[in-house]
Amino acid sequence: MTATDPALTGLAQRWCALSLLHGRIESHIERALESGHGLSVREYSLLDVLSRQHDGPGGHLQMKQVADAVVLSQSATTRLVTRLEDRGLLTRYLCTTDRRGIYTDVTEAGRKLLEEARPTNDRALREALDEAAENPELASLVQVLEGETTPV
Fold it and tell me: Is the pTM above the cut of 0.90?
């Protein structure tokens, strides 16, 4: 393949459109969550991921799993956990079977804030997708996300 290969050019164009769509959605949700609940998208995502933990086998996530789920490095995730812990939204505790393991849980205050923020997140996502659907470069990606068509 060469840089002028039409397939590569098309792929690169679709990647740019996907990146643009992601950026617009994330920016729209960020503004809504920040103004309505004092949360960033990353903070919301972290609370959401951690709120899904359970007591069954594999139910508690290690920091690497959490980092992967919120698409951050482990050190950035640790800093994010610390900020939310300082706000009383998360708590950390030692694993009972491996004293080297540290787990993180959402506090009641964190669960309450997450439940209050969830409709804002969903509404902002819907608004961002509706706006993107009006853009000819992004409309086909929105249709794929909506399940109206299959990916190319």
Answer: no
pLDDT higher than threshold 70 for residue 8 = no
> Is the dihedral angle over the CA atoms 18, 21, 26, 29 positive or is it negative?
negative
Residue pair 21/141 in contact (Cβ under 8 Å)? The answer is: yes
| Res. 7: pLDDT tops 80 | no
Q: Is the pLDDT of residue 5 over 60?
A: no
* DSSP structure string for the chain: --TT-HHHHHHHHHHHHHHHHHHHHHHHHHHHHHHHHS--HHHHHHHHHHHT--SSTT-S--HHHHHHHHT--HHHHHHHHHHHHHTTSEEEEE-SS-TT-EEEEE-HHHHHHHHHHHHHHHHHHHHHHHHHHTSTTTHHHHHHHHTSS---
Structure tokens at 11: 């792929």
The answer to whether 105 touches 88, Cβ cutoff 8 Å, is no
Site of tokens 């709120």: 51
Residue with tokens 């004293």: 99
